[in-house]
Structures are given as structure tokens and as C-alpha cells.
Design goal:
The protein is mostly helical. Helix content is 63%, strand content 11%. It is built from 6 helices and 3 strands. It has a 3-stranded antiparallel beta sheet. The radius of gyration is 19 Å and the shape is globular. It starts with a helix and ends with a helix. The N terminus is likely disordered.
Amino acid sequence: MSLYAYSRCLQTLFADMPARTKKPLPPVSEEALALIASWFRTLAEPSRLKILRALEEGEKNITELVAATGLTQANASRHVQSLVDAGMVGRRKEGLSVICFIADPSITDLCDNVCNNLLKRLSHQVKKLGGS
């Protein structure tokens, strides 16, 4: 599908969505927008999403995260650090192990909302293309 066709498809999808009444948002400074963009960039890495997905099942140490995600130990540790820096994941020491956990439960809600939205949009596209 061309970019134009995809764009038209998305426009159609959004046109079919019911309008929401929203309250006006307060002004946001350039610095705040930069912080928000940085936070979302943290989520733009598939390996970090794998880690978050694994942690939704419960706390895990790095070895368990490696097994759950297929990442190397060094890569998993590096991505966990990025998630910790963003405040999404927390860590604590338990003996010689470092236990990772979701520190901000709203991240799970956000990921669920995005996944559900994508599922609805893709389902709608399939129906429009004549699929079942």
C-alpha cells in the first residue's frame, strides 16, 4: 500500500470515529514538550517494549528478562537502564540479583490503549478491504 493510500485509509478511519468533547488543555512549555518527546522516544525501541511486556507478567531479574525477550544480557541491561531513567521501570537488589519491576503502572495502561487502538484500526482496514 502506498503512503498516500495508507494516509487516506487513516483519514477514513478517523472520520468514522465518534467525535470526543475535550476540555481545553493548559499551555505546555517548550521544555516540557521536549521532556514528553524524550519519554515517548524511550518507548520507540521494540526491545524496551519487549521488556515492559515481560514485566507485565511480574517482577523479573535480568537473567529472566534475557530468557523472556531473547536479548543479550548486556542489551537487556542497557534497555532496562533507559526505562529506569524514564521512570517506567524500577530496580531493587535482592542478594546478588537485581529485580526489575514496572514502576509506573500507567505505562501498562498506555501500552494497552495503543495496542487496542491498533487492533481496532487494523480490523477496520481488513473489513474495508473485504476480509472477515
